[in-house]
From TrEMBL:
This is Taurine transport system substrate-binding protein. The keyword Ligase does not apply. Belongs to the bacterial solute-binding protein SsuA/TauA family. SUPFAM superfamilies: Periplasmic binding protein-like II. It is found in: Periplasm. The keyword Signal applies. GO terms for biological process: alkanesulfonate transmembrane transport. It comes from the Bacteria. The lineage of its organism: Bacteria, Bacillati, Actinomycetota, Actinomycetes, Pseudonocardiales. Keywords: Signal. Residues 1-19 form the signal peptide. Residues 35-254 form the Solute-binding protein family 3/N-terminal domain. One of its GO terms (molecular function) is transmembrane transporter activity. One of its GO terms (cellular component) is ATP-binding cassette (ABC) transporter complex.
Amino acid sequence: MSISRRYALSLFAAVPVLAACGVGGSSSGSGGGKTVRIAYQNFADSTLLVKDRQTLEKALPDHTVKWTAFDSGASINTAFLGGSIDLAVIGSSPTAAGLCPPLSIPYQVIELLNVIGDSEALVVRKATGITKITELVGRKVAAPFSSTAHYSLLAALELAGVDAGQVTLVDLEPQNIQAAWQRGDIDAAYVWTPVLSVLQQDGVTLTDSAKLAAEGKPTLTFTVAGRDFAAANPDVIEAWLAATDDALKLIGTDPGTVAAAVSRQIGISTDDALSQLKQNIYLDHAEQRGPDYFGTPDQPGELAERLHDTAQFLRQQKKVDQVPDLATIRAALRVPGAGGA
């Protein structure tokens, strides 16, 4: 099942109904067991190996595991507000937005799935003749709003000295970006694979998220869990983290096996899946407890500061109303491998 932002908004409108039906921390399955509702996205990452192997289903035989594909982090945030998901794969920009008013979503960041590299990029149509970001003034540029790609697009414009108001920004989900590109409705787009790979066939890459990270604007992919769900279901969180940690390690030791799983899950060739996996940086949980990321409960790392900086940038761009203090952001981080800390 795939959920677009428009459909997710209908879920948000149904919040009272969902609450009345008991949808929240964990729902009951038809057999009286629990249902774990996972939001994932159709790009190459370790969680697709977990899904492909049904690792969570095997570890939690008394649970029903429901996987739902979402087009972007914005629609995932809306679904969290509607109480319809428990765990989600989501980027750092929508996570930062989710922690800020007006959303203020009560979820926790429980692990880092990747540091985004050139799997997200700003591409312009070759036919435009554009070769520099400054030449995008007056042009139509698409990105899924409130996504890591949107954050990176705004950062790229800022770094190039281009006011975002000088560019016509178009809010489109990845598949709609591909369609608009093929129709000639847009001049450029900041998007992620696999749509990015299609655009690059007749486009010119102006910058990517690896280059922006080097310039101080990094983006990341997380797993987030509803705070109440995580507190009430420590067995699920433990099983999920064990599965994803193994998958993260396997990307380093046997990427071909992970690529084969990605290929089966999102319908691309194994070679393309392997190429996309190589575009990001993967850290296992032990590495994530280093000072550059989560740190430890006693010695917090820099991840909270990075999320806080992202939130500050979103505030400057008028994408959020206000930014919580650093302590509030830090409290939303749950160090993987440190229990409920």
